[in-house]
Write a structure and sequence with these properties.
Layout (H helix, E strand, L loop, with lengths): L6 H23 L21 E7 L3 H12 L6 E8 L5 H11 L3 E6 L9 H11 L4 E6 L2 E3 L4 H6 L8 E3 L2 E3 L5 H22 L11 E4 H6 L15 H7 L5 E3 L7 E3 L5 H12 L7 H27 L3 H25 L9 H22 L8
Parallel strand pairs: 1-2, 1-4, 2-3, 6-9, 7-10
Antiparallel strand pairs: 4-8, 5-10, 6-8
Helix pairs in contact: 1-10, 1-11, 2-3, 9-12, 10-12
């Protein structure tokens, strides 16, 4: 039958239409807002506040050689870079001493290893924050480089009355592998989510590879507060707890992005994702519901689409709904790939769109079963 009136077909079709509506609501209600942002003009040097960049490094000598100069050579009038050498056992100490001779802006704080005490990245960050001379802080990682020497200008320009947190995009460097394409796609999609939701007035996370807030605001809110004992969450849990519709902004100009070295193996990437998933249960309930509904509706949408096509139940309606959702998705993802400078990965996006909720579910379940096995941040 072209148009079925059987009760089971009507129920399935109604559920399919509902899942498609929910999916479209995310794309048009949240993600589309990212492309309506205007970047504005950079502030003149006289109006730029002094900045402290904080980088926590553990056994990162090779990455510091490659990427730290791009941070130290930013086009910004007054800033310092504080590197927290967190119990490194490689050549990090010697390297930083040598770099301090060439870069007066570089300052180093060192944590000495205690065999009887394992600590989270939060301790290293807290030491860096306390060492900072300036109130405006910008965070990135040792394996990151800014896309532009105007990265700090992009962050500082967004601070106005009431703004305390600025969220940036931390992408990954491109390599020719399917795993790399998937990691970059997923990272872009997550950025599309938290950027769009922030612009819609419901900020819920940021990434430590590209994050900024005021030092005074951090201490005013009690630092890492109730999440201080958790190994991960130095970035997303802090933002989730203290952000509001009025105090949080996103930077989306091409100069504002950072790039990191992507995990080279599935095992390395899975371990990284499990660290991130370990913080999800501490999010606000409303955020957990929003983040659950999107992948749930996506999996349900594809399952119902497959079922209805196999049954050939009211297939013209099914095809119309599927085509409408596909067009919306292609337009948004295509624009996202341009906005976040990930132009070549949108081609794989349909396959990744189907794959990612299943992969995330598996990793989330394994993370939950592992409990508190992870004892260090590196």
């Amino acid at each position: 039958m072209i148009f079925s009136t059987e009760p089971v077909h009507i129920v399935l079709l109604s559920a399919f239409a509902l899942m498609a509506v929910i999916q479209t609501w995310y794309y048009l209600g949240y993600y589309l807002k990212v492309f309506r942002v205007t970047y504005g003009d950079s502030l003149p040097d006289s109006e730029l506040p002094p900045v402290t960049v904080i980088i926590c490094a553990r056994n990162e000598a090779a990455n510091l050689v490659r990427f730290l100069p791009s941070v130290l050579e930013q086009d910004y009038p007054l800033f310092e870079v504080v590197v927290v050498n967190d119990c490194s056992e490689d050549e990090t100490h010697e390297l930083l001493e040598e770099m301090q001779q060439r870069y007066p802006r570089l300052r180093v704080s060192t944590i000495i290893k205690d065999p009887g005490f394992a600590h989270a990245k939060k301790l290293a960050m807290l030491i860096g924050i306390k060492a900072a001379k300036h109130d405006l802080l910008v965070f990135t990682d040792a394996d990151c480089r800014p896309d532009s020497d105007r990265w700090l200008r992009s962050a500082a320009a967004l601070y106005s009355d009431g703004v305390e947190i600025v969220l940036g995009y931390g992408g990954y460097m491109a390599e020719k592998s399917l795993l790399n394409s998937y990691i970059r796609y997923e990272t872009m999609f997550i950025a599309l989510q938290y950027s769009g939701m922030t612009l819609a007035g419901v900020p819920y996370m940021g990434v430590g590879r590209n994050l900024s807030y005021h030092r005074s605001f951090f201490f005013e809110k009690g630092g890492f507060g109730p999440h201080n004992h958790i190994m991960s969450g130095d970035d997303d849990l802090f933002v989730n707890r203290v952000s509001s519709p009025s105090n949080c902004r996103v930077m989306l100009s091409p100069d504002s992005f950072t790039r990191s070295v992507a995990p080279a193996s599935v095992k390395e990437w899975a371990r990284q994702k499990q660290r991130h998933f370990s913080t999800a249960k501490y999010y606000k309930t409303s955020d957990k519901l929003r983040l659950f509904l999107e992948p749930f509706s996506r999996v349900s949408y594809y399952a119902l689409l497959t079922t209805l096509l196999i049954m050939l139940a009211s297939w013209p309606i099914v095809a119309f709904i599927a085509l409408a959702r596909l067009i919306v998705r292609i337009i948004v993802i295509y624009k996202a790939s341009r906005t976040f400078k990930e132009k070549e990965i949108w081609f794989f996006s349909l396959f990744f769109d189907i794959l990612s909720p299943f992969v995330s579910t598996i990793l989330y379940i394994t993370t939950t079963r592992q409990g508190k096995k992870t004892k260090t941040w590196k």
